[in-house]
Design brief:
Blueprint: H1 4-42, H2 46-49, H3 53-67, E1 72-73, E2 86-91, H4 97-104, E3 114-119, E4 130-133, H5 141-148, E5 154-157, E6 169-174, E7 177-183, H6 184-189, E8 193-194, H7 196-201, E9 204-206, H8 221-224
Parallel strand pairs: 2-3, 2-4, 4-5, 5-6, 7-9
Antiparallel strand pairs: 1-8, 6-7
Helix pairs in contact: 1-3, 3-4
Length: 226
């Protein structure tokens, strides 16, 4: 029969485990709600957004970039300490940098403070968790992606040939909506675990090892809502 001290310790251990479970659930729930709100915006017809389309595009990209971490697991070793910030870096044209910085201030990816950096030299990207590669760097994709090779860095682009160059995720405009595509093989090679929920919301998933044809078309993200 357990002694009194053992009986007293067990509830504390239960509360600790429950606390960890709640923290994990809360992180994924907040991320899911945030992404759902973005996708609801995608249902609004294009003409209704036309007046402020550029500002809306910047805010959407910023919202996506700061929401993706809730659906992706990075190896613990990529963070130098428990207090280290989550680095979202931009290489190239930084037109929506102000918007990204504003959105990042209100988010805490995986319980960490989000920090936005403008990468001026390719080598600086090695310390980032997310690297957004602007379309201004389209002619340098092979060079830029070699810098990230072997690192657990989520590389994000905004042109149709970013994934074929070896990038992991790319924004796509279709029918007036901002969507995204994922190169799952590239993410797996970087030891990034992408949630099935994020894959289900992608417009297209390339190089999916679970697909018999090597890729999976998940369909239009807006069609996944509801």
């Amino acid at each position: 029969m357990p002694c009194g001290s053992e009986i007293k310790r067990r509830p504390a251990m239960g509360r600790e485990a429950l606390g960890r479970g709640r923290e994990t659930f809360q992180r994924h729930r907040v991320g899911a709600v945030h992404l759902a709100l973005i996708l609801i915006w995608l249902l609004v017809p294009g003409p209704a957004r036309a007046q402020n389309s550029i500002a809306a595009e910047y805010r959407l990209k910023a919202s996506f970039l700061t929401t993706f971490p809730s659906f992706i697991d990075w190896p613990a070793k990529v963070f130098p300490s428990a207090q280290a910030p989550f680095l979202v870096c931009v290489l190239g044209d930084f037109r929506f940098g102000t918007t990204l910085a504003e959105v990042a201030r209100t988010t805490s990816p995986q319980g960490r403070r989000a920090e936005v950096r403008w990468v001026r030299r390719d080598e600086e990207a090695r310390n980032c968790q997310i690297l957004f590669v602007s379309e201004s760097e389209v002619n340098r994709y092979p060079q830029v992606l070699r810098i990230a090779q072997g690192q657990s860095i989520l590389t994000v682009g905004e042109t149709s040939d970013f994934l074929s160059a070896g990038g992991m995720l790319s924004f796509v405009f279709q029918n007036g909506s901002l969507q995204f595509e994922i190169n799952l093989a590239a993410a797996n090679a970087a030891h990034l675990r992408v949630s099935s929920r994020l894959l289900a919301l992608a417009r297209r998933v390339l190089n999916n090892p679970e697909s018999p044809v090597g890729y999976d078309t998940a369909g239009n993200a807006s069609r996944k809502v509801g």
